[in-house]
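Re-running the complex after MR caught last week's input typo. The corrected sequence lines follow. Everything else is unchanged.
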Amino acid sequence: MELKIRNLSISSGGPLVAILNEEDSVKLDLKALDRVKLKKGSKEAVVIIDIAKRSIKKGTISLFDEVINELQAKNNEKVCVSQEPLPQSLQYIKKKLDGGDLSKMEINEIVKDIVLKKLSEVEITYFVVACYINGLTLYESAYLTEAIVENGKKLSLKKYPILDKHSLGGIPGNRTTPIVVSIVAANGFIIPKTSTRSITSVSGTADTVEVFAPVSHPIEKIEEIVKKTNGCMVWGGALELASADDKLIKIEKALSIDPRGIMLASILAKKAAVGATHVVIDMPIGKGSKVVSKKEANILKRKFLQLGKLLGMELKIVMTDGTEPIGNGLGPALEARDILLTLQNKGPEPLKKKALILTSTLLGMVGVKNPYKKALETLESGAAYTKFKDIIKAQGGNPNVRVSDIKIGKFKSDVKAKENCIIKELDNKLLTSIAKSAGAPFDKGAGIYLNVHVKDKVKKGGILYTIYAERKQKLDYTLKLFKKIPIICEPIKNQ
Amino acid sequence: MELKIRNLSISSGGPLVAILNEEDSVKLDLKALDRVKLKKGSKEAVVIIDIAKRSIKKGTISLFDEVINELQAKNNEKVCVSQEPLPQSLQYIKKKLDGGDLSKMEINEIVKDIVLKKLSEVEITYFVVACYINGLTLYESAYLTEAIVENGKKLSLKKYPILDKHSLGGIPGNRTTPIVVSIVAANGFIIPKTSTRSITSVSGTADTVEVFAPVSHPIEKIEEIVKKTNGCMVWGGALELASADDKLIKIEKALSIDPRGIMLASILAKKAAVGATHVVIDMPIGKGSKVVSKKEANILKRKFLQLGKLLGMELKIVMTDGTEPIGNGLGPALEARDILLTLQNKGPEPLKKKALILTSTLLGMVGVKNPYKKALETLESGAAYTKFKDIIKAQGGNPNVRVSDIKIGKFKSDVKAKENCIIKELDNKLLTSIAKSAGAPFDKGAGIYLNVHVKDKVKKGGILYTIYAERKQKLDYTLKLFKKIPIICEPIKNQ
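Corrected-run output:
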C-alpha cells in the first residue's frame, strides 16, 4: 500500500514511529505498536505505528525527523508500506513478565532493540516493571551489564590496569572525584573518569568540573586527554557509552523506582565501557542518602562484589558517612572552590579525608604499598595539584585559575544561630532544595556555603550557612519560600 | 518562566504532552514526565513534559493540538510555565507495583486520571503490568469496573430490567447478536446492545450490522432507538462508554497480555455503562478460541459470577463449542446473509441453535416461562424478523433488504475435496487469516463461505469452501499466499 508522507518536522527522540489514519490501519490490518516497513526507492526503515482517529488524513503517513532522515524523504512524497513481524525481543520481555529467567542471548536482544530504537516506550516499560517486580538473577544482571556495554560505544585505551570510581550519591557537596582522579593519575595510573550532570541534585560532578574546563568531549578527544595526562574528568552523558542504560533510567524515573538488578548493571556497565579493571564504590549510608541502613548496605555490597566477580572486574565498596554534606560548598562554583582549596592543602578536612580514603583503596587494589601514606604525600606535596592542572589544561580549561577567580553569586544571605548551640543534624534534602531554589546547578555561582557541620559548636549570632544566588529575585524567592532552617541545633546553657 | 509556543499541528491522541528543550528543562528543574502548568491569559492546562535534546529550540515549547485547543493558543504566542505536583494516582500505581491492594478511592483516582489524560502511556503501562504480575483481588476488580463506568459516559434508559449479552469471542462466524437482540426485543424486553468492530478478527458484530444500517450514533440517538424498538445494535467504540478501558486495552495489546482482573472489569464495565441488569456471557471453549480448556473456563466462570454479585448484576455463563465457526459465512456481508436467512428460517442450523440457547438463557433470567420454546416461537413466527427490521429502520438502514441485495465479492474461488472424506477439524486461525487476506472486514463482501462443518461427509470434487474478494488482486494474492487448506479431512475408503 502506498501512502503520502507528511513530515512532522519534529524528532520523536525515542523509537522510530509513524502515525497512520485509523481507516488505513484497518486496511493494512495493523494495530497500535505493530511494525511496518517503509520503502522509498532504495531506502528502507522499519517503524512502530501509532494510530490516530482524527488528526491524520486518510492516505497519509506522518513521520518524525528520524524516519524522514533515514528515508531521505520529503513532504508529499509517496512511501510503500508493508507489514513487518514484531521484534523477537518482545517474546523475551513477555518471558520475564511471566517470571522466567532470561538467557544472555535474550537479554542482549532486548538491549540491542532498545538501542536501535526498535522498541516503544510502552514496551520498554514492560521490561523495566517485569525486572522490578520479578527481580533479576545475578546472572541476568551480568548479562544485562555486558549487553549494555556491547550495544554502546566504548573507550579504547588498551592499557592495564584501568582505575575508576563511582559514588552511589544522594548527598550534596560530596565532590571527591577531581581530587581522587588527580592523586591516582599523579601516581601514574590510568583513570578515565566520566561523570553525570545533576538531575535532581545541587550539582553533578560534571557541573562542578565545568567551572574549570569544558567537560563535553568526543570519545577520540577523551582518549587523547587520558593518553596525555593519565586521567580525565568529563561528562559521560554525550558519549553514548551505555545508551541503553539512559533509556532504562528514563523509564525508571517515571515512578522513581530503582530495580536493583538494573541499577547494578547500569553502574557497572558505565565502568566497563571505559575499560575499568579496578573500581572503588563510595556507598554513603544514612538518612537522605540512597542507602539508608547498614543492613541494606551489606546486601548491596555483596551483590556488587558477586556481580564484579562474574564480570571479571575488581571491586571494593567503601561505606561512608552519608548523614551530612562532605565539603562546605553546595553548588558548582562553591564546590569547585572546595576542590581547589583541598588541592592547595587549605580545603575542608572531611572532604580531604574522604578523598584520601577512596584514593588509597584504589591504589591498594593495584598493589601500591602504604597506599594511604602515598595518597597523602601526593596531595600534600602538590603533585596532585600539578596533575589536576594538566588535566584541566588538556580539557581546554585555564590551569592557573585561582580560588578568587571562581565567581560566586553576588547576592547572598547569612543565616545565623539564634543562641549558643551545638549542631545536631544537617538535612540533606532540605539543603538541596534551598540551593536549587537559589539557582544551582544552572547558575554556577548559586548554592549554599556551610559554616558548620555536625558536632560543631556555634555562638549566638554566628553564621550557620550562607545562601548565594546570581540573581536577586532567586535569592528573595528562596528566602520567602524556605522558612525552615535545614540545620538542627541543640541549645547550650551558659555555663 | 515564559516560553514561546510552537504548534505541532498534530494530535497526541493520548495524554496532554508538551516538549521542552533540555536546557529549559534544567532551568525549570524538570525531568521527563514531570508536570507543568501552562497559563495564557485566563486559560490553563496541566501537561506532561517530554524533553528533547536537539529538535526543540531553546525558549520554545512544542504543543500538540489538544493543548493548543485548551489554551486557545497560536503559534509564537507566549505561555507561562510553572511546576505542578505529580498526580496522586502515581503513588497508588506505585502501591500496586509493590504488591499492595488498592482501595476504591485509589482505583477511582487512577482511572479518573487515565480518562482526563493526566497519565502518560509509560505510567499507564506501570499500572497494567502491576495488575498483570501482582493480580487484582475480586474487590479491586469490582472497584475497577465501577471506576471505569463512573468515569465514562452512560446510557440513561431508566428501565428495569435491562438485558445484555457478551461473547468472549475468538472464533469466526459467531454472529448470534442480531438474532438474540431481535428475539429479546420482540418479547418486550430492553436490550441496548453495543458491539465492537474487528481488531484482529474477520468481522466484528458492528462491521456485520453495518451491512444493514449505520452503527455509529451519538448516545442520545441510541436512547431514542431503544425507546422506539426496545433494542439496538450499534458500535460502542465512538461512545466513550468506558473510555478508560479503551486505553488499558491499547497498552495490553502491546504485549498481547490479558490481565484477568482488568479483562473482567473491562467486559462488565461496558455492560454496566448501558445499565444492564441481566447479562448472558457466551464463553466458547476450544483450540483457537480465547478459553482453551474446560478447567480454565470454570475458573473464569466462577470469577465472573463473584464479580457480578459484587456489582449487583445478574450473570449467566453459557459454555459453548469454540472449535469451529458457528455460521457458514465469515466476513461482514457473508455473515449478514446468514443472519437474514436465520431470521427468515432458512439459515444455518448451528447459528440458529446457538442464538436460541443464549436468548432463552436471558429470557429465563427475567422470569419468562419455557424460555427456549418462547424464543423459538418468536423466531419461527417471524416476530423476531419484524423486530429486526424495526431496529434496522430506526438506525437508518433499509428494513426491506433481501438476501440477494447483500453484495458479495464478485471474485471467487472454490476449494474442493480431493477425495471422498469426512471433515475432522476446521482451523479457526487459518480461516481468519485467509478471509482477512481476501479483504475482510474492510471489503465488506470479502471472506469465506463454508460448505462443510465438522463431521460432514463430502465427495471427491465437492466444494469445501469458497473464498470471496471484491478485488481480483486480493483473491490472487490470497490463493498464492495460502497453500494450506484450513480444513482437515479424513479420507473415506469407497465402500
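None of the earlier attempt is carried over here. Chain A touches chain B through 48 residues (CB under 8 Å). Residues 440 and 446 of chain A are 5 Å apart (CA to CA).
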